[in-house]
Give the backbone structure.
Amino acid sequence: PDRKCRLIPFTFSATQTMIIELGHHYVRFHTDGATLMNGDVPYEVTTDYDESELFDIDYAQSVDIITLVHCAHPPRELRRYGALDWRISDITFNTKISAPAGVTATQHIATSATNKDGYVRKYVVTACNVDNSEESKASTVASVICNPYGDGAYNTIAWNSVAGADHYRVYRDKGGIYGYIGETRLTTIDDDNIAPDSSITPPIYDDVFLTSGGITGATVVAQGSGYTGPNGEVTSVTLEEVETWYIEATSAYFEPGDAWVQKRDGAWFLESHVPDGRLVPFPGADVVKYFSAEVTIYDAEGSGVGATATPVMSSWDEWIPLTPVDHYQRCQYGFRPVKGITLTNQGSGYKRPVVVVKITAYPTFSTVSKGGTSNYEYKRWTGEFIGKAVSAGFLTASIRVTDSTGSGAQLEPLISSEGKLTAVVVKNAGAGYTNPTATLISNYGSGAQISLTVANAGDYPGCVGYFEQRRWFAGSRMRPQFIWATKTGTETDMGYSLPSQPTDRIKVRVASQDSNRIRHIVPLSQLLILTASGEWRVSPLNSDALTPETMSVRPQSYVGSSQTKPVLINNTMIFAAARGGHLRELGYSYQAGGYITSDLCLRATHLFDNKEVIDIAYSKAPYSIFWCINNTGALISYTYIPEQQISAFAQHSTDGSFESCAVVPEDTEDILYCVVKREINGNPVRFIERMNEFIKKNQVDQIYLDCAGTYTGQPKKEITGISWLNGKTVSIYADGYCVPDQKVENGKIVLSRAASVVHVGLAYNSDVKTLPLAVQLQDMSFGTNHRKNVTGVSLRVLESAIPLVGQSFEKLYQPPTRSREAPGTPPARKDGEIDLPIQGHWTNEGEVCIRQNKPLPMKVSSITVTCDIV
């Protein structure tokens, strides 16, 4: 529960899908809403991926194999051999077949022949598997002095058999190139002066992801001391801006202490007078009877901070007159709803904390007269204010590597709680080092000494993909703009030939004006690669297949992508921009003759501005919905039907924060899985939560709750086994009825009536708010600047419960309904048009708010309002 994890999809077929949970040094598996178990514990595969590396891992799937790449680790394969047999291993590139040993060449010629030693013939042999997908390196050279032109002359080449080989190929030297002369399943072959085919040569293999002169190890010679300091604790929290709320009041002179509330012009006003002549709300300390403030501090790295808001409602003196106070005149009194923020826990790890304070207040005024006191509700205030938190900073400790020849090394020091250097982690080995030295640079401490080891080091790719029968890799740390592709029809063969063959591996550098690392490889009709600064198309120079000779890399746009893995929708790609937090669409344009990109977030910029999209998923059925999670923990859905030019955003909030998401097909629908961090009984917990199916035939099986569980069985009142929600107030949907909320205690709830199908979970509000009403009036301007009074709304719904409606979410109305169901039958869903009156008042916007706050469905297909306009 104290570490993040990441979800990635695994789809072998329409009936075999998995959600793979990548965590700190482990992999787990989930399917059909259940965890793959090994006895009483989750089945796990051990890895060495740290929590901080999980969201930088790129992946690509081919049948039962998932390729995992990260710049700090060798490329790996996670393979499924059985339900409880998953294995992860480093990829062995090039070939697993050994080269033949014991190769000899022997001359055969007539004994009467002359000039038996006028020539030298050289041979090499390779071993091949059954389908020629793997061919070994060439053997050592076998030479023979001979006269291949003599009567009956031939040379016999022999070798030892090789394990795993199906047949062998033999090559002979001609002008420095070993050309193909034949292949056999035997371990010998006769060369009777066969003409070598120099277009077919033995494969050449190299270590594509190794560099020479890298720093492969670092040893702590002396630990030093005093390397201690702050760890990102939050030291203070302040409000940057607080809106002033106000009350309108009409003054009148009465005896000291007299006051009352009066409704005038459709609104409530406070009338009061006190002995010193001030006009103030009375009594000042009790004006806000119900007040709540929620303080949230966001930071991608930090955790554990706690803060509370202090209300301002303490005395009359904190009320601010905004207009002159004269007898018998209406005036305004303003107040700030928050006096300050109190820090209750400093937490740790905060770098750039952002503070959001959400305020809700229910003002209540007292009418004081000689006849007694009465309370009147004025209105409900809500607001959101931005604050600023100050981090204490961090102990800054880094390692500087000095060398006249090498570059690129990144070393990370590990400091103990006692302030000593305990170890050094090689994050990037670099290349070209001959005699490097390392120095620990820190704003605290001294005395540490480090020794370095230099050898051939791994320079591993950061992204992977499949295209045109090749597995593609790109974006290592030392070669950030290099692309590698295996030989055609293989997944691991990085061999090449001299002269070059069309099927050889591809190795090319993208020549661009910057050096941003390639972050993504995306296969569409052509191969696309994305960097932090632009989008590139990899295509042949003509209509041929991609080969080392025909490959061309051309820029398409200069937007830039974040590290978040893109998703494919139909023939387009959706990716997160490198800067600004927006989502971009990239697709082919015939008019432009290439791929163009557009911003998808212009109609909902408030959901994306200055935020970072950290995970993306896409569900095709039953609805085309694109899901993403940002760094504030919000889940955002994007209904996306480009062929009909339909799209819409919605934000999904829960009692907690979302951290990762993935979608896999299950039965007839695509199902969303999320990692959700919640707080239960004051402790942080993380759940893997699965979205319920959209389509449920039986009303009692529909679930509109978060973090929910279901009991099915014999009817009973006491529902147990709800320990994951201990201490939480939950909503309950039992046998098709909404029953009163309860608090889970000791893992159970008690119903007033026995039920056989009970859903228990966290409630949420489903809210719709229309745009400001704009109408065209005869002989009047277009109606955005007119006053509107909405008095009724007509909703066309589909299989829905009747929602609450109003002109604001603070004043919602639910009309009484007549139930025609038989006694003991759950209320039926509504289809068609329903007319709902609402409490009207004059506004400039004429907006309508709709809310479903029960665990019931709400599908609204149209909204018609009845309103007065002036």
